[in-house]
């Protein structure tokens, strides 16, 4: 079985990470990747011989939820799994409404990602247990999310933003320290402060939240 996959994500480091996870399985074949929804739609026009798309939500130009809706209208045979950092209610609700076939978090391990892909292609819906639980609650108590996103008031120093920009490129603490002419210990302290201010637990969440709030 040769499962043809595309990846849509504006972070090339994360695309590489996902490709690496998929490379462990001979039945998975990444045909192409796209850096945003618009880029994906252009590539699909050239070739839509795909089985499944792994779709990020927070992307510039055209986000993952808007893109999912368009892809489902034009190419209903293609399954879509949202692969994102955030599991908030609004994203889950809007992704399902747009036609997403599954919803997984980027921290997923290679085997669970493979299982989620095959499960979705066999007619199931790949979801983290926590997301499945939230989905059930949303179905029982529908919420009206038809309002504009309100950006949070997050204050980062100029140096913290520089560190975040370096982090978003997938660089190690030591490389960031060299680039900014600081010690690795100072970089760790900045990252600790960034996590506190953004109320996140890892660099993936930090980068995604910073992008969402136009900090980087």
Keywords for this entry:
alpha/beta
Describe the overall structure.
By secondary structure, this protein is α/β, with parallel strands linked by helices. Helices cover 50% and strands 12% of the residues. It has a five-stranded parallel sheet, sandwiched between helices. Strand 3 (52-55), helix 3 (64-74) and strand 4 form a beta-alpha-beta unit. Helix 7 (158-168) packs across helix 9 (184-198). The longest helix has 15 residues, at 184-198. The mean pLDDT is 89.
Strand order of the largest sheet: 2-1-3-4-5
C-alpha end-to-end distance: 41 Å
Describe the biggest sheet? 5 strands, parallel
Shape: globular
| Unreliable sequence segments | none
DSSP strand count = 5
* Rg measurement, Å: 18 Å
The total of helices stands at 10
- Secondary structure class reads alpha/beta
Could you estimate the helical fraction of the residues in percent?
40-55%
Oligomer: single chain
Short overview:
The protein is of the alpha/beta class and 216 residues long.
SSE order and pairing:
Blueprint: E1 3-8, H1 12-22, E2 28-34, H2 37-46, E3 52-55, H3 64-74, E4 79-84, H4 89-98, E5 102-105, H5 110-121, H6 129-140, H7 158-168, H8 173-179, H9 184-198, H10 203-212
Parallel strand pairs: 1-2, 1-3, 3-4, 4-5
Helix pairs in contact: 1-5, 2-3, 3-4, 7-9, 7-10, 8-9, 9-10
